[in-house]
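Lab manual, section 2.4: Encoding a predicted structure.

Procedure: take the sequence of the chain (498 residues), apply the prediction step described in section 2.3, and record the output as structure tokens. A sample record is shown.
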Amino acid sequence: MTRINNFIAGEWVLPSSGEFVNSINPARISDIVTRYPLSAKADVDRAVAAAREAFPVWRDLPAPRRAEILYRAAELLQRAKPELAKSVTREMGKVYSEGLGDIQEAVDMAYYMAGEGRRLVGETVPCELPHKDGKSLRVPHGVFALITPWNFPVAIPVWKIFASLICGNTAVFKPSSDSPYCAALLVEILEEAGLPAGVLNLVMGRGQHVGQYLATHPGVDGISFTGSCAVGEALAQQAAALHRPIAMEMGGKNAILILKDADLDLALHGVLWGAFGTTGQRCTAASRIILEQAVYDRFLNRLVEAAGSLRLGDGLLPETDVGPLINKQGLDKALDYIKIGQEEGAELLCGGLRAAEGGLAEGYFMQPAVFANVQPNMRIAQEEIFGPVVAVMPCADYEDGIRLVNQSRYGLSSSIYTNNVNYAARAERDIDSGLVYINASTIGAEIQLPFGGFKHSGSGHPEAGGRMGAIDFFSRIKVIYRDFSGRLQKAQIDQESQ
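Recorded output:
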């Protein structure tokens, strides 16, 4: 597609503004992926109206029938996986193997949420009066605003869209301006799968204009947002005033704690994957490495050597280990934090420069950076960088290490490497984050379990994971009492007095 449009009421339509801008390949900025709409408030109004109109019919369609459409979408995603993955890599930069993983996660979620179409369970319970029963059941909220980021341009939208739809909601989907092409490809697949007109609507544009207006639109009944902490917390305040449910998945400053009894080979692989996979551009990326003093020097030397050997390049090239940052702003932010770390007194042992040699000059590439002798109160140890930068800190023992892990305003994902079963068991309890990994990196969540963080990382409404996660958020509980006695029975009244 040389140009993409909004998708409203089952049709691909021009934005009312008539304005389009380029989505570019961050590995080669002369490569224009597509031109996408800069939508206006009128486009949001139209999309919300379409979702509201479609809601009663979609709500009344039995959930197993809704699931059939999701199953078809899963099959289409699976068939299109190689080409979709290439589009992910081209538009947002992650290496092709990770692009394939992005699509596979979407396939997995599609099948999983389709299965929920026959498991949207409530409960039937005994009542205290004769000839009476009580039950609870799940009902949809209405219209959801779904606002998604660029780093998982297919998987994260699918997490939100499919959970919302299987519960009977309709939605307006606002993707990141850095990955609109992938969003359009996903919506095309749902259209091909037979999703009725108006059930899912796509509106593209800048977050401060389109996203903000959509989230607070009077025709919207709920919000699911993944993005920055500052934007999410501002939306939460507005949602509270509107008495509107909101699920927020925001930032992280995730730590890997490596104790002296750990398998250091395994830990090194975990750190490299967690810190530099997706070029460090994951909310679950490992940006703090805490080493027990007895292995500090030995592990640090190996980490620096390994980080320096990672190969930068276009993610579609098979030899590439690390792709570009998403855009100039992301690159500049990461480079600014290199200066901040040095000014704070941390020791930069490798990387931290823009990579511009050879074919890298036209992209947003940065050499993976490792800081040593980092103090816990330094900004590089407390603030989310969202780039290939790690801060390495020593700890005295398990207790000191746990203290450092938890010394953060965030609490999304954490990891511990140890062969001591007691420390592993204690870490499950002691680490204050929504995700805890034992002898594994901080990235790699699976769709059948809830995903979400503590503290400033999230709202407490996790995504994925069925009834303990997304299903509980995208549905609400209605309670039904049925009295078939044929007479007035007074509950909460002493039975002997009736």
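Check your result against the sample. The first helix runs from residue 41 to 60.
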